[in-house]
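This follows on from our talk about sequence and fold. Please put the record directly below this note.
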Amino acid sequence: MRAFLQVIKGPGLGRKITLREGQLLYVGRTDQADVSCPENPEMSSVHFTIRWMGNECQFKDLNSANGSYRNGERIAESLVQDGDQIKTGQATFKLFMGDSAEGDTTRPEMPAMNSPPPLFDTKPEVPLVPARPPGSAVVPAPRATPASPQPAHSHAPHVHAAPMTVAVPSIAGSVGLLIPVATDVAAIAPLEEESKKLASPDLDTPQFASKLAEQEKFIDAIRVLAFSMGKLTVIEWSMRCVQTALGDSLSEIDKRALDIVQQWLGGQSEELRRAAHAASQEAEHSTAASWVAMAVFWSEGSMGPPPPAPVVPPGPTQCAHAATGAILLAAVARQPEKAPDKYREFIRMGLELVGGGK
């Protein structure tokens, strides 16, 4: 027996959240939740809980700002059944259970952590430096304190009225493979536990990615490459993957987004970075191309309004998260049954960009 929630409308279209019987799962916009949906800005930080119990699920809204709706009716706590639709924020989930879940072949399952992180990434900065002796420790670099934490169920990120004394991230020199040792990238990339166990100080990052791909752990192989690349390189890689997978089927909005990304890669400017953000918003953050554009926006600078507004820097891994999301969406946007073949091709392209492995 299987059960899962799948986004059938809105941000994250096609994404599946696996339910395990008896497990209480917290879902929301930030990483305070078990399942983070940062692509859905109208969800609360922790929006709802759901527990699968046999032939029904127990759903509870956690006093969210915008509420939850079951088949169009607002609910606070309810039993939900196979086929019910639950709207939270801008996304509508559908519950698949039992036979309907077993027979579903519309899209390959995507892990819960396939989306970029919330706006305030509080993980320590990891210095991205060229080759170091294998197995040497990664020493976190000092980083300015981010804005005050949000309340557990706040709707929008808090921004101080006074300017923040933080350094604006830069992408200078961010090209090629910047984390060359498997164990170092495994420490920062959101990998499955089984994949982390395969990392070794004796493996370089391309070898680690190749090993994961050989065991058909494609998504983690993509994450390993994305989190080890310089920002310019991972953005170029994600753009190539989207163009390869979608080609002529790209909408005009997505074509404009990728055109802006191409211009930005040719010469970074604040004007083009802001234009990339606008292009991603125009696509409603729902397409692979829109997440390439978000990777550009999250590569450097501030996520807040232009000066004199306070600087709100992106977290150290947000660019890699956005690029990963773009690549995974590109694999399933057309002919999702062929996603494994696309993953293999994307990994080959990534290895080629960093000059390592087969």
User: Anything to note?
Assistant: The two ends are 38 Å apart (CA to CA).
